[in-house]
Design goal:
By secondary structure, the protein is an alpha/beta fold. It contains seven helices and twelve strands. Helix 2 packs across helix 3. The chain is elongated, with a radius of gyration of 25 Å.
Length: 329
């Protein structure tokens, strides 16, 4: 019998043995080895119950590779802090277009307060940014299970270490959240994206970081002109189900001459290179941006990194590691 206060060590014995014996060191080693073999096999064959999960992903064009975790969910942030968005299911993404450099965020409708590229220096451009922010807030108000994300990295070297995502958040703050201050607690930033594809990709990962799971529904807020790019190209590149994808658009400023031509060129480039790993798409991400040196998104044990084969600081076509994830209904 076991000594009082101690737990007996039980071993499985052949029939006829009436006594309990402590396992030998060899038996313990064999048991540990068996667990090490069977546990990975169990994890491999156990179906994932998350609404949408990623594994290794490589494009059909074999131009890039994305490494994600195995999906599923987590309950705590790094350091044991509770997840602020654990109860949220809907990602509302407002894609940033510029960095705010003014000192008074209440003046956000003035073009002079933003760091703009030459093609953006038209009347109404700044007001269109504020309209996107407002539309994102209104969409989040309509769904109490939505997380609002302002997405955009440090895309202008001359503007300093300021991100588009944080610029939009502070403008919303200055505007009093357009009368819906309660949305503030469900609004966060994604500050790494350098183009529209990364807006969607990194916002998915940021949602996971803040909630512990991937979104069941995604809504993108941007110019109506860019709906095809987001809905048909970027969404498809990530294999997110179209039935759970929505788009809220606004008109371009009337003075934005040449926008249609520029968008057609960008769409054609993403059709050839869905992940932006080569040519003009890559160069635009590398030129004049600080985000390439920013800290990566923390997904705990998971990562959200774009792998384009690199040679020095350049990129070449990548080898495919496997199929893209299968859509889940």
């Amino acid at each position: 019998s076991a000594v009082l206060g101690q737990q007996p060590v039980i071993s499985f014995l052949p029939h006829g043995h009436g006594r309990l014996r402590r396992p030998t060191l060899r038996q313990v080693f064999q048991g540990v080895l068996l667990v090490c073999v069977l546990l990975p096999l169990w994890l491999l064959v156990t179906p994932d119950t998350s609404p949408w999960s990623w594994g290794y992903m490589a494009g059909e064009s074999s131009q890039s590779e994305y490494l994600f975790g195995s999906g599923g969910s987590r309950k705590m942030m790094a350091g044991g802090l509770p997840l602020p968005g654990a109860h949220l299911k809907h990602l509302i993404l407002v894609a940033g277009h510029a960095v705010y450099v003014g000192k008074d965020y209440s003046q956000a409708t003035r073009e002079s307060e933003w760091f703009l590229e030459s093609y953006q220096k038209v009347e109404g451009e700044a007001a269109s940014f504020v309209e996107h922010i407002r539309l994102g807030v209104l969409a989040a108000v309509a769904d109490p299970e939505a997380m609002l994300l302002f997405s955009g990295g440090q895309t202008r070297l001359d503007a300093g270490p300021r991100s588009e995502g944080l610029s939009y958040w502070v403008v919303a703050e200055a505007a009093g959240w357009f009368g819906s201050v309660g949305v503030r607690n469900r609004t966060f930033t994604e500050e790494h994206a350098r183009d529209s594809f990364e807006n969607l990709l990194f916002s998915m990962c940021r949602f996971y970081e803040l909630s512990g799971h991937y979104p069941e529904q995604v809504t993108v807020v941007s110019y109506t002109l860019k709906e095809e790019r987001f809905r048909q190209l970027h969404r498809d590149a990530l294999r997110f189900p179209e039935a759970r994808f929505s788009f809220i658009g606004s008109d371009l400023p009337a003075a934005a001459v040449g926008a249609l031509t520029g968008e057609a060129r960008t769409v054609a480039s993403f059709q050839q290179d869905p992940y932006g790993c080569t040519g003009e798409l890559l160069q635009k991400k590398l030129d004049g941006t600080l985000s390439q040196w920013a800290h990566p998104i923390d997904l705990g044990a998971q990562t959200c990194v774009v792998y384009c084969n690199t040679a020095a600081r350049g990129y070449t076509q990548a080898e495919s590691l496997g199929p893209r994830p299968i859509d889940k209904a």
